[in-house]
């Protein structure tokens, strides 16, 4: 489980060090930095797939994503990291060296580090890279890894020796299991509203298009009782069925007072969105981390309490971070989760800060040196 998340010089997150819990809810006014925090987590996930440089390019390049305020000391640097009780990881992006390459605007990975425990210190360091050279710890000595890492390659994606520093592979696999949901489509042209070819689907897709197959998978190999309880708590007296004809799957919902069940094309945006959250949170294959961005969007207020119950139940099997504007959802989560970790962001002089957290209240954190 991640216990500390750290971001430096990413958009309004000049320096943000957060403590995370099993279930963490991030709130704050519009423009406080919630979306930046969500994107920073996605960048961390991209680093394990060697996609962080491309992700930064899609955001306009490193220069467009850096903290734009004053007091930026030292070299240009965008840093991301996390730590748990077992391992920690950090990555540092900087400006490229001058070259004639057509890709001369791509940011470079200046340093990376993996360490044991929650705090980085020389004795806990297990592997690091700098200037393209990777080394791993072997007892009391360091072993250089043959070859040179390209400036755009993360050691998480390129290192593959399970005998030396297996922690690198473990962290890579853990990060690659992270799941993010923020673009679940329910518009009139959304694929989910049409019958889709279905196969066993233990993980709902990012846009929710395979909802019917994902719900049927939960019914067959997951927690079918929890599935139907989630439907009943949100829509009393209703019954969910999945039609599967010639390999094409579609969602149908029977509701009291109606003479026939309604298909996905007829369901409201809120009803369809809630069914997607059911599929995401009751997944038979829980990730190490599940991040939900504004799950309350499109939902009727009456659905927020059942959603809170789903999120709380999901946090039993996976660490969950919820980024939300909804006071009602946050209150419902607090009632169900007494040890809820609540983080409220606000902005001061363009910088995102944590309400009630001074410098002495931050979790201890040290960045690896370049």
TrEMBL record:
<dbReference type="InterPro" id="IPR027417">
    <property type="entry name" value="P-loop_NTPase"/>
</dbReference>
<dbReference type="InterPro" id="IPR003959">
    <property type="entry name" value="ATPase_AAA_core"/>
</dbReference>
<feature type="domain" description="ATPase AAA-type core">
    <location>
        <begin position="231"/>
        <end position="331"/>
    </location>
</feature>
<dbReference type="InterPro" id="IPR014555">
    <property type="entry name" value="RecF-like"/>
</dbReference>
<feature type="domain" description="ATPase AAA-type core">
    <location>
        <begin position="23"/>
        <end position="63"/>
    </location>
</feature>
<protein>
    <submittedName>
        <fullName>AAA family ATPase</fullName>
    </submittedName>
</protein>
<keyword id="KW-0227">DNA damage</keyword>
<keyword id="KW-0742">SOS response</keyword>
<dbReference type="Pfam" id="PF13304">
    <property type="entry name" value="AAA_21"/>
</dbReference>
């Amino acid at each position: 489980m991640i216990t500390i998340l750290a971001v430096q010089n990413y958009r309004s997150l000049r320096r943000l060090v957060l403590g995370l819990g099993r279930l963490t809810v991030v709130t704050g006014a519009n423009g406080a930095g919630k979306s930046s925090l969500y994107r920073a987590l996605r960048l961390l996930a991209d680093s394990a797939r060697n996609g962080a440089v491309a992700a930064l390019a899609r955001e306009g390049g490193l220069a467009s994503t850096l903290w734009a305020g004053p007091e930026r000391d030292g070299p240009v640097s965008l840093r991301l990291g996390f730590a748990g009780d077992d391992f920690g990881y950090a990555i540092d992006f900087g400006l490229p060296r001058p070259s004639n390459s057509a890709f001369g605007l791509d940011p470079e990975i200046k340093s990376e580090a993996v360490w044991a425990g929650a705090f980085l210190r020389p004795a806990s360091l297990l592997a690091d890279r700098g200037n393209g050279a990777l080394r791993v710890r072997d007892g009391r000595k360091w072993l250089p890894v043959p070859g040179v890492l390209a400036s755009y390659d993360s050691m998480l994606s390129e290192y593959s020796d399970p005998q030396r520093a297996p922690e690198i592979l473990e962290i890579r696999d853990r990060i690659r299991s992270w799941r993010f949901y923020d673009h679940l489509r329910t518009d009139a042209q959304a694929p989910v509203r049409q019958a889709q070819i279905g196969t066993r689907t233990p993980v709902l897709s990012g846009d929710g298009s395979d909802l019917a197959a994902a719900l049927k998978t939960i019914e067959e190999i997951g927690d079918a009782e929890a599935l139907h309880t989630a439907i009943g708590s949100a829509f009393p007296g209703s019954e969910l069925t999945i039609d599967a004809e010639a390999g094409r799957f579609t969602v149908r919902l029977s509701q009291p007072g109606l003479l026939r069940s309604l298909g996905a094309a007829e369901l409201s945006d809120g009803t369809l969105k809630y069914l997607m959250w059911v599929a995401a949170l009751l997944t038979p294959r829980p990730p190490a981390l599940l991040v939900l961005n504004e799950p309350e969007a499109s939902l009727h207020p009456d659905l927020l309490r059942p959603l809170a119950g789903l999120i709380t139940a999901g946090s039993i099997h996976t660490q969950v971070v919820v980024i939300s504007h909804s006071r009602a959802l946050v209150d419902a989560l607090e009632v169900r989760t007494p040890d809820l970790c609540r983080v409220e962001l606000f902005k001061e002089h363009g910088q995102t800060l944590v309400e009630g957290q001074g410098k002495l209240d931050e979790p201890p954190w040290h960045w690896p040196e370049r």
